[in-house]
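User: Modeling request: complex.
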Amino acid sequence: QLQLQESGPGLVKPSETLSLTCTVSGGSISSNTHYWGWIRQAPGKGLEWIGSIYYSGTTYYNPSLKSRVTISVDTSKNQLSLKLSSMTAADTALYYCARLRQYQLRGDCFDYWGQGTLVTVSS
Amino acid sequence: DIQMTQSPSSLSASVGDRVTITCRTSQNINNFLNWYHQKPGKAPKLLIYAASSLQGGVPSRFSGSGSGTDFTLTISSLQPEDFATYYCQQSYNIPQTFGQGTKVEIK
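Assistant: Request completed. Predicted assembly structure:
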C-alpha cells in the first residue's frame, strides 16, 4: 500500500524559506505512470494546489506562488521536496503531498495523500 | 484561472437521504473534474475522477455526472461515515483549482 509522509519544521519565521519533505513508501517515486504534487490548506479554508512534478522532471507551479516555489524529487531517497521562500503569515497552512494519477492523456487526480504537516509562520 | 463554484456551501441531511452537490466551472473543462471528501483532521480522499468514474474502493452509492461546465456528485443513500466536506477539482488547466467545499452535516 502506497504511503506518503510529510516532514519539516512546524514553525517558520517570516521571510524565511520553508523546506518540506515527503517520503514515499510502498512504491517508487520514479514511476513513469504517476507523478507528484503539493497542496495546502489554510486553517478552516479550502484546498490550494501549489505545484506538481512529472517523472521527466517537468514542473508546474501555481502562478500565484511560482516566484517562490521549487518542487523537486530525490529518487535515491524516494522523496519529494517543497521549498517556499519569503514566507508570510498568509502561508500558514496544512501542507499535503500527494500522488497524481493521469487519465485520458490530459486529466489527472490526486489518488494518494499524505496526512499533512502544519506549518505556522510566526516570529 | 478556472473558477469553481460549488453549491450549496453546506447542507443538513439525514442518514438514508439522497444528497446532490453541484460544481460549476467558469469555462468548459470537458470531463476533467474530480471529487474528494475530507473528514475533520484527515487528508482529502478521492471519490470520483473524470467526472463520473468511481475510484477503486469507493462505495457505489457515490456517483458523478456532468461535462463541460456543470457537474454533480450524488450520494444515493447517505451513511454516517459520509458526513464530511466535499470538494470538486479541475485538472483541465494550470493552475489546478478546487471548489470552496460543501459541508454535509447531520440533520
